[in-house]
Amino acid sequence: MVNANGDSQKPRILVVEDDKAISVGLRMNLQAEGYEVMIAEDGERGLELARQASPNLMILDVMLPKVNGLEVLDTLRREGYVFPIIVLSARTAEMDKVAGLELGAEDYVAKPFSLAELLARVRGAIRRSAGAPQSHRGTVVFGDVSIDASARTVRRAGQLVEFTATEFDVLMCFVAERGRALTRESIFQKVWGPNHHGTPRTIDNFVQQLRAKLEDDPQSPRFFQTVRGVGYRFDG
After folding, report:
1. Domain residues for 71?
2. Pick from 16, 146, 217, 221: most CB atoms within 10 A?
3. pLDDT tens digits, residue range 107-141?
4. Which residues contact 26 (CB under 8 A, 6 or more apart)?
């Protein structure tokens, strides 16, 4: 990764976790992977560091002192921060995962977690956020929406629309397969890779987010169509 002056710099990861054993273990292993790591032990401090340090990625526990993780996530997304956030939680019910994803989480990892799997998800999230090469380049226009694939920006009626890295990748997956019906599994494969651990509801949530941001009427979508018994199709 390169900074504004052209110098290489380590990707910066903010770990917000009140369990010291977990945070210390994550710090050691992430540093061994070549990342710069910051630690916050409560949600309030996590918000403060996120605003000050502009991390490349945040690993965020849900059950935190002072301000819980979902509140931290919601606050950062409402303030316009789009760096990827991987949520850690001992709460494994699908409704908890859905809540995190709907608030803008990049990923949701259940405790206890596999360290190797978490590190793989971190690498994937940072790669996508940094603008990994896409199969579709140039400008894409549909309706009043304009996508600059190289700059990874989306405008609607000339106004910039904020997208997380994964939201943008899901959007570009649809654009690249314009007019084709895609299964949820095929979307997982294209965006997250073969070792994903999501559920069909994950894709449903991302499509809902795309509709909310880019459709005139999300309840009666023009571009992101449901294909019953299959998945979704982009008709832009």
Report:
1. 12-129
2. 16
3. 888 888 889 889 988 988 887 776 544 444 467 88
4. 15, 17, 37, 59
